[in-house]
């Protein structure tokens, strides 16, 4: 394959070359211990084997666009393949329980690569609480490429089945959704989609949980993708997108697109992402423990909290049947947009920012920020409350986080001091809920 993606005939002459011209096995070498038992995920995350000439402990950054040499060598041009990127892809494939992983320049880049296989007239079935960027891309495809997009309430198998047919070419799911934290039955919907059309591709956006907590390919999905910008990286210092597949032909289609458009992840960012992945387990464990405690704190004081770690979550059992943890994103409502705005502005430790997955805690109002690209009418139709506050919990000390939230609730006027602690103000007036917050 030459840099223009035109087959140059060399592949035919060389045995065992994959589509990108690499003489490497299509699936990662298993790093199982001699007992035959598979290593646990926390071990796989940090353990990497490499054949580096100097036995470097950290995978070297091959900051090179070209590689010298004649036909048949492993690398020639970094758009087609780069050793640092390949190392990351093989490491990720193992972690995602995939045969092949591909890394691109952002999560939306991954979504773009996947949806480029759609042809005019193809039908896509997807959710009604999608990530704003995904919604924007699907709207573009609908308006410009004649793709038919059905938004269904993916929490109800029946409403998904109602729009599935033999014309369904792709089903695009997110679970839990953000910020409504709706849980989607991956295996149930995958089975229904494949029954409607055996060739339908079920793609799952796994950004909210990461491969540490959920493996959609094991649940019947054909493609898993996620934003590496979030938990995989963990530090908000890079943007990346990751795609995992078991189907070889599908993997080749996606690779063709990446090589053709040039969206493969750069060597330096590939190295940074490898570095982030090594601490995924410890970060995620701490983040979700903090998130659980904060969700319980807010709920015990009367707020309507959405978090799959709470027994009150309407799909608690479904979530735990397909995931190993609740993640670290939760949302809650206050009953008033102005009040929510004051709370968001009054926190110190929770940075006002879009995105999540970082070691720092973040706070945002999705209707004003990440989901602002969805017009107000559509937000209303999808019952996205304008006052909803999203918390993305980091690895800070839990007491500090709860103190920060408590003082923000007081300063925002959500609660007032009484003999019994704090008592809700506006929430009372809105007649929604009865909030009493303990003295911080
Ligand atoms: C952030 C995000 C994306 C997009 O990823 P980028 O790396 O920002 O392009 C897609 N899906 C979900 C659920 C996300 O949170």
UniProtKB/TrEMBL annotation:
EC number: 4.4.1.13
GO molecular function: cysteine-S-conjugate beta-lyase activity; pyridoxal phosphate binding
Positions of transmembrane segments: none
Chain spans, region Disordered: 1-37
Pathways involved: Amino-acid biosynthesis; L-methionine biosynthesis via de novo pathway; L-homocysteine from L-cystathionine: step 1/1
Cofactors required: pyridoxal 5'-phosphate
N6-(pyridoxal phosphate)lysine: modified positions: 230
Enzyme class: lyase
Reactions it catalyzes: L,L-cystathionine + H2O = L-homocysteine + pyruvate + NH4(+); an S-substituted L-cysteine + H2O = a thiol + pyruvate + NH4(+)
Gene Ontology cellular component terms for the protein in this record: cytoplasm
Keywords, sorted A to Z: Amino-acid biosynthesis, Lyase, Methionine biosynthesis, Pyridoxal phosphate
A biological-process GO annotation: 'de novo' L-methionine biosynthetic process
Pfam families referenced in this protein's UniProt entry, alphabetically: Cys_Met_Meta_PP
Family classification: Belongs to the trans-sulfuration enzymes family.
NCBIfam families, A to Z: cysta_beta_ly_E
Protein name: Cystathionine beta-lyase
Organism: Extremus antarcticus
């Amino acid at each position: 394959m030459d840099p223009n993606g035109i087959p140059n005939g060399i592949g035919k002459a060389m045995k065992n070359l994959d589509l990108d011209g690499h003489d490497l096995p299509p699936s990662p070498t298993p790093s199982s211990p001699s007992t035959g038992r598979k290593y646990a995920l926390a071990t796989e995350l940090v353990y990497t084997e490499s054949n580096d000439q100097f036995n470097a402990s950290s995978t070297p950054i091959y900051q090179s666009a070209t590689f010298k040499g004649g036909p048949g060598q492993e690398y020639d041009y970094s758009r087609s393949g780069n050793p640092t990127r390949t190392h990351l892809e093989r490491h990720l494939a193992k972690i995602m329980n995939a045969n092949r992983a591909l890394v691109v320049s952002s999560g939306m880049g991954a979504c773009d690569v996947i949806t480029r296989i759609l042809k005019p007239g193809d039908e896509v079935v997807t959710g009604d609480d999608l990530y704003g960027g995904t919604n924007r891309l699907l709207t573009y495809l609908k308006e410009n490429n004649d793709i038919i997009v059905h938004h269904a309430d993916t929490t109800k198998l029946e409403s998904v089945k109602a729009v599935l047919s033999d014309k369904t070419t792709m089903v695009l799911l997110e679970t839990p959704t953000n910020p409504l934290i709706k849980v989607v039955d991956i295996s149930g919907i995958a089975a229904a989609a494949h029954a409607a059309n055996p060739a339908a591709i079920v793609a799952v956006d796994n950004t909210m949980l990461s491969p540490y907590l959920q493996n959609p390919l094991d649940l019947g999905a054909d493609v898993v993708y996620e934003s590496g910008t979030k938990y995989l990286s963990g530090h908000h210092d890079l943007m990346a997108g990751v795609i995992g597949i078991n189907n070889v032909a599908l993997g080749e289609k996606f690779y063709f697109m990446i090589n053709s458009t040039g969206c493969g992840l750069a060597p330096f960012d590939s190295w940074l992402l490898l570095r982030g992945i090594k601490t995924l387990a410890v970060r995620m464990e701490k983040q979700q423990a903090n998130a659980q405690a904060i969700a319980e704190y807010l709920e015990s004081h009367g707020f309507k909290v959405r978090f799959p770690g709470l027994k009150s979550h309407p799909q608690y059992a479904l979530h735990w049947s397909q995931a190993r943890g609740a993640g670290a994103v939760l949302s809650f409502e206050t009953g008033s947009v102005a009040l929510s705005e004051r709370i968001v502005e009054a926190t110190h430790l929770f940075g006002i920012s879009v995105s999540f997955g970082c070691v720092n805690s973040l706070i945002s109002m999705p209707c004003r920020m990440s989901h602002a690209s969805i017009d107000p009418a559509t937000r209303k139709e999808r019952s996205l409350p304008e006052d909803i506050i999203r918390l993305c919990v980091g690895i800070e000390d839990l007491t500090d986080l709860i103190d920060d939230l408590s003082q923000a609730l007081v300063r925002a006027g959500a609660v007032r001091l009484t003999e019994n602690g704090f008592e809700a103000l506006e929430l009372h007036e809105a007649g929604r809920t009865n909030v009493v917050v303990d003295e911080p």
